[in-house]
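ok so for the tutorial part 2 we go from a plain amino acid sequence to predicted structure tokens. step 1 is just haveing the sequence, like this:
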Amino acid sequence: MIFHKFQAPTECPKVGWFKDATKLGHEFKSVRIICLEKRRVDSIITTNKHGQIVNTARAVGSDSANKQDLIESFLSRGVLDNSLPPFILVSGELFEGFTRQDSLLEIGQQEWIYVVCELNDGFTVEDAKDEIGLGLNDHVPSKRHNPNDFKKRLKNWIARRKNKGISTNEDDCQEWFDNISHSFTQQKVTDIIQGVFKSAHAAEFMTPFTKSQACKKARSLTGLEKVYAFDNNTGASFETSLMSMFREYDEFGVCSPCVSYLKNTLAEDAFKQRLENEKKVELFNRVLLERLLPQYNFHKKNGTLDQFKPIRLIGHLPQMIDVENEIVKCSK
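step 2 — the prediction. this is what the tokens look like for a chain of 332 residues:
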């Protein structure tokens, strides 16, 4: 690897330092590459009307840590020989290279080299973000795309097709994947497709809720001031809600009721999943009343409550390097 140093922010790298994108070994379906061109960095369109960087090719947007790595690389080493510049449309709208662009803006870089493209007939900038924003990763330092990036873009692609009246099946999703460069195994691709496909179809026939939305809906339907909500498929689980219920019991001696809701569940699976949620509550109530309460009363009657520990915490795992190597106990 050869790096070409330049004097940031006033000096612009030379076109010849970058890979000639017009001679790429494969043709893109969504765009045709026109040329590599010098443009003012502050002329590139990267934000929405609220001034937010719209890096929708990434599930979590632009990465601040990776941006800092890029800044340090630009300032200390320069431009990697034969790397690809960011991709823009003729209009100046960026669709690949958001973190690099953000890095250039932060160091006050005046001009940069960009790959200028035109959309092919029938394709949108979102299609270009799918194909190129996910598939290309030739800059250094790099941040590899992850499954969540693909899940987000695939979900959006299905939605765009639906808005055009086009139905989508799993084979269509596989074809979408095949047109994007990635390093996932076929099993991983299948898992992503099935997960997104199931979620998309669930949303079509089932009202989606976040935990806060579910609580709000439950309060409006019951007239109660407080209701706990848990789902069947995410971090908003019954087990998580249970800790909140325990805290309320500990403080007030009573506990607000709860409701369950379904996440990424097909309508035909709703009955089965709701039964599973009911079984979790029944299990807790049964263990509490039939197992724990009688044992508590027994030990209380015999003055041996100090021996009654339903949940036994034996300590904490050793994690301080060169300091801890055995189970750690904090309390006396």
